[in-house]
Specification:
It contains 6 helices and 3 strands; from the N terminus they run H-E-H-E-H-H-H-E-H. A 3-stranded parallel beta sheet has the order 2-1-3. The chain is globular and about 45 Å long. The mean pLDDT is 87.
């Protein structure tokens, strides 16, 4: 909550006007959206919940610490992921592409409040790079989707 509040205060201090806020309907993202909205003076009741912004569905790995399954996920094929009930990278990229298409041509500043997996998908799609070329995104920070993607060191 403190990180979200600080991100909102930083956004307010930047002078950038936010015209619309879209949030994942999952509580941790929505709670972040509320904190940022309050900090920038955006009406909370105008935050739009968009299921395209949800985090990656991990099936049987839901709720387990990422460090225990991250390498396992990277090594699994799309078919293996799907058979385990885990959302594939292709599916994440498809959601990211669909969201970007919906927002294409918007002449306003839109704040998207989402999760690491979908965020990486958005950056990868936007900059035409592979999902795994995008590093883990920082928590509760405002990132400009038009900026150069955050590529991992090779």
């Amino acid at each position: 909550i403190l990180q979200a509040r600080e991100a909102g205060l930083g956004l307010r201090a930047s002078g950038l006007k936010i015209d619309r806020v879209l949030s994942s309907p999952l509580s941790r993202a929505y709670d972040t959206a509320v904190e940022v909205a309050q900090a920038i003076g955006y009406p909370i009741d105008e935050i739009v919940l968009d299921p395209l912004l949800k985090e990656r569905m991990l099936g049987p790995l839901e709720g387990k610490l990422a460090k225990f399954h991250a390498q396992q996920l990277v090594s699994m094929s799309e078919e293996e992921l799907a058979s385990e009930g885990i959302e594939t990278i292709s599916a994440i990229m498809d959601r990211a592409q669909k969201l970007l298409q919906q927002l294409e041509g918007a002449e306003e500043n839109i704040l998207l409040v989402s999760h690491n997996g979908l965020g990486r998908g958005l950056f990868a799609t936007r900059h035409s790079v592979a999902f795994y070329d995008i590093q883990r995104l920082p928590n509760a920070q405002v990132l400009d989707l038009a900026s150069v993607p955050l590529l991992e060191d090779e």
